[in-house]
Design goal:
The complex is a heterodimer.
Chain A lengths: L23 H13 L2 H21 L21 H32 L1 H6 L6 H30 L7 H25 L3 H18 L11 H7 L3 H14 L5 H21 L4
Helix pairs in contact in A: 1-5, 2-3, 2-5, 3-5, 3-6, 3-7, 3-9, 6-9, 6-10, 9-10
Chain B lengths: L5 E10 L2 E11 L4 E5 L6 H8 L7 E6 L2 E2 L11 E4 L11 H9 L8 H7 L15 H13 L5 E5 L7 H16 L3 E6 L2 H7 L2 E6 L2 E6 L1 H6 L5 E6 L5 H14 L3 E6 L6 E6 L3 H11 L6 E5 L3 H9 L24
Parallel strand pairs in B: 3-8, 3-9, 6-7, 7-8
Antiparallel strand pairs in B: 1-2, 1-4, 4-5, 9-10, 11-13, 11-14, 12-13
Classes of the chains: A mainly alpha, B alpha/beta.
């Protein structure tokens, strides 16, 4: 200890510039290192999309044969089923950490008093939220990139017809799903509740995004409902961008609306204790 | 006296209709170990959390080094180290990582390696938080409260859940920290801890300060004399109680005779400083040979009883480690 205490100190401002976010780099590095020790998050965030693609692509017969049993004017005509699965898998990938991981992480922080503990230091507790958003988004990108590379190598994925539409749908999907994740994080208090709520939201979203019934084989009712969910809209918009020629206006608006409504709500409702 | 480094004046804090802190005032001098002692639910933690700017007061002022922490809580975070009751760390972060991480938040941090050495944590630097023992977790928590080189450290219930040996080690540690010049605000419900560690303290009950002073000063100021506890063989207890009870009316030195709560064989005799002189001849006359006779030392528990009219009881949350007895003022 090198402390020397001034015994009679006049009231003084001790705040120095930079306080509040000082040490953020170290916080981000430490949180990343600690987070990587949680193998479940790492698996679901990075490997799951790829595992799913490869499993379905090689596990189900005919997934790699071009489809000729759809109407010739369909956007999927001549495309392999596994290629039509890709937009759905990507939509799932951008929602996995947002919905399954963030609410549990943040409610655990709240429950354990991590956020309160930070409040007593010069570091703002917001910093750890930002750090985990960064970690989750970067991990999501890594998972998506891995899935794309493996899909290219294993199946030779089709070049998107409208790359900009796919990218826009990806970004909007990311924003809307992370907004939903943050909204859930704001609402639930206990890690156990967070786990339950996250699953209750995540699996219906997967269904409506077509994880069990992708692209051509999706029942119309699922498509009709799914287009109003953030994950379903992301999958359909990327689908259209990948194989179609139209602009998925409705899906874009849906994702933007989820984001615009939920993100400010999440910020407003978030509790620190 | 120097200007107080911490000053709390007429603090009040309510949660809905529940009054957590009614009216609490005290001042802490630089370099002392100042105790906030009271039973669970007395308002101790609320007081220090408000002091640290984590809660909004309903009335009164709280100042740390002259800074109103209600108006400007951020201004004291570099000089006020806080150890909260609960653990508040990731299960998977290691001791070394946690200290390095927190060191990064402060303008002029202490050396994590030095702190680990001082708190006997060096050997556990790579151990994850979840794998630490209770004592190691507490030591890490103390280390984290000191990592910013604070002028004041708030230590809240720091030995709860520790075994007696770990508790005594922690006490020594707190004294060592104070010797480095850090003012310590010690929140505890544990009488022995306050008596052993604090230079001065306030006793808080139901949101109010009921006593303030040095531990010995508070004990010395107590009215009244002595308590002697006599233990009889089981077959003699009833006769012994009857023989001694006679003394209350007969002898001015004896004021009360009563069985000790929770004991079948012990009788407590209270009276003046000379109560023993009255007691022994009476036993001799009746030919009652006690198994044990001892005088009861007054403690902060008696101070609490004298000021609140209630025996000190801490609540059931840590009954396994704390042996604070509520025996109507008699401590066997």
């Amino acid at each position: 200890m090198t402390t020397t205490t001034a015994t009679t100190t006049a009231p003084a401002r001790v705040r120095s510039s930079g306080a509040g976010w000082r040490g953020f780099g170290r916080l981000l590095r430490t949180e990343t290192a600690v987070w990587l020790r949680d193998s479940t998050s790492v698996f679901f965030g990075i490997l799951f999309p790829t595992v799913l693609l490869v499993g379905v692509g090689f596990g189900i017969p005919g997934m790699r044969e071009p489809m000729t049993d759809v109407p010739p004017d369909s956007i999927w005509y001549g495309v392999t089923p596994i290629a039509t699965y890709l937009p759905t898998v990507l939509a799932m990938a951008i929602g996995t950490l947002a919905i399954l991981s963030l609410p549990v992480t943040f409610s655990t922080f709240r429950d354990k008093g991590v956020l309160r503990r930070l409040s007593t230091t010069p570091m703002r507790p917001q910093a750890i939220i930002v750090a985990h958003l960064v970690i989750s988004i970067v991990t999501t990108f890594v998972g998506v990139a891995l899935a794309l590379v493996v899909a290219q190598v294993a199946f030779g994925i089709v070049r998107p017809e409208q790359l900009a539409v796919v990218l826009g749908a990806f970004v909007l999907g990311l924003l809307s799903l992370f907004s939903l994740g943050m909204f859930l994080s704001a609402l639930v208090n206990k890690p156990s509740t967070a786990n339950a709520v996250a699953s209750l939201v995540y699996f219906p979203l997967l269904f409506l995004a077509g994880l069990w019934t992708p692209g051509p084989i999706m029942p119309d009712i699922v498509r009709q409902i799914g287009q109003f969910t953030p994950m379903g809209a992301a999958a359909q918009a990327m689908d259209e961008g990948w194989f179609g020629t139209e602009f998925p206006m409705l899906q874009y608006v849906v994702m933007a609306a989820w984001t615009v409504v939920l993100m400010p709500l999440a910020v407003r409702l978030f509790r620190w204790t | 006296m120097a200007d107080p480094i911490v000053e709390v004046r007429n603090l009040r804090k309510t949660y809905g209709s529940k009054v957590a802190v009614d009216d609490v005032s005290f001042a802490v001098q630089p370099g002392e170990i100042f105790g906030i002692l009271g039973p669970n639910g007395a308002g101790k933690t609320t007081t220090v959390e408000t002091l640290a700017g984590l809660r909004t007061a309903d009335g009164g002022t709280v100042r740390v080094r002259g800074i109103d922490t209600q108006r400007d809580p951020v201004a004291v975070r570099d000089i006020l180290g806080v150890q909260l009751q609960e653990a508040a760390l990731h299960d998977k972060i290691t001791v070394g990582e946690a200290l390095n991480l927190f060191a990064g938040f402060y303008a002029d941090p202490a050396d994590p390696a030095e702190l680990m050495a001082m708190l006997d944590l060096t050997a556990h630097a790579d151990r994850r938080f979840a794998k630490l023992s209770g004592g190691q977790k507490q030591r890490l928590s103390i280390a984290l409260s000191l990592i910013g080189n604070p002028e004041i450290a708030v230590l809240d219930e720091l030995t709860t859940g520790l075994d007696p040996q770990a508790r005594r080690n922690t006490w020594e540690l707190v004294e060592r920290v104070r010797d480095t010049g850090v003012t310590i605000l010690l929140v505890t419900h544990f009488m022995e801890e306050a008596e052993r560690l604090c230079d001065r303290l306030v006793i808080i009950d139901a949101g109010n300060v009921v006593a303030e002073g040095t531990p010995q000063g508070l004990i010395d100021a107590l009215e009244g004399g002595r308590t002697v506890v006599v233990r009889f063989a089981p077959q003699d207890v009833e006769r012994g109680r009857r023989e001694l009870a006679v003394l209350v009316d007969r002898d001015a030195e004896v004021e009360g005779v009563a069985p000790v709560d929770g004991s079948d064989t012990e009788i407590a005799v209270t009276g003046t400083r000379r109560v023993l002189f009255s007691l022994v001849p009476a036993l001799a006359t009746a030919d009652l040979v006690p198994d044990d006779v001892r005088t009861v030392t007054k403690s902060l528990e008696d101070v609490f009883l004298a000021h609140t009219g209630r025996a000190y009881a801490t609540g059931a949350d840590d009954a396994t480690t704390d042996t604070v007895l509520a025996t109507e003022g008699v401590r066997p």
